[in-house]
Amino acid sequence: MTALRPIDSRDVKPAAVEDYPVNEVCAVPGCGKSTESAHHAFSRSKIKGTSYYVSIDGGQPVPHVIGLCGSGTTGHHGDVEEHRAWISLEDGVWSWHRESDDSGNSQGQQFVLVGALDPQPGPIAAKKIKRAGSGGTGVKGKPKSTKVLTINVPAEAQKEDGAEVLRTLIDECKNKWKDERGWSDSVPDYYPIVAALTQALQ
How do residues 24-35 score in pLDDT, each as one tens digit? Predict the structure, then answer.
């Protein structure tokens, strides 16, 4: 069986860019197991090639190969290949979804968002990532609910408009990693913040 496509049908072709080492720890949020295989989000049979990068609708090359635990029939790699899970690409962010408990009803197969792949596909995957707070699952395997994190600007930082300083830094991180991670202009602030903090911890 072949994994479900990350996006609706588009013109996706292999891009001639050098391959990269994949992540050492499974990229599924909350997994923590060692990587056993490299998964092509856009299947090699569909793009008619083995490139680690693809061009979508003639755009810039986008990395799409990620390290997962298991093989094509076991672990998380097996889950995505056999449609128990789905990797999506939306607004430049790769995310992991598990099959919903409601799948198989009259509406057909459904999926529940677990969280963004950590790390995202690409050269940064070659670096070892600390996975604390990577957005795992809650009780009985159900995804944790989304929470809002508020950042208070200290009074002393108000003199230099601390909120504007933070906004500028986030935007600069978006621009810095935009091409490398395939982010769109509307990528949520969460991703550049996590990327910057992760890099600081390495």
Answer: 899 999 998 999
